[in-house]
Amino acid sequence: MKPIVKSSKLANVCYDIRGPVLDKAREMQEEGHKIIQLNIGNIAAFGLEPPDEIVQDMIRNLPHTAGYTDSKGLFAPRRAVVHYTQEKQIPGVTVDDVYLGNGASELIVMSMNALLNDGDEVLIPAPDYPLYTAAVALSGGTPVHYVCDEQAGWMPDIADMKKKITPNTKAIVVINPNNPTGALYPDSVLKEIVEVARQHQLVVFADEIYDKTLYDGETHTSIASLADDVLFVSFNGLSKNYRSCGYRAGWMVVSGEKRHAKDYIEGLNMLASMRLCSNTPGQLAIQTALGGYQSIKDLVAPSGRLGRQRDLAYQLLSDIPGVSVVKPKAALYMFPRLDPKVYPIADDQQFAYELLAEEKVLIVQGTGFNWLQPDHFRLVFLPNSDDLTDAIGRIARFLEHYRKRHSL
Question: Nearest CA to 74 among 291, 277, 244?
Answer without folding.
Answer: 277
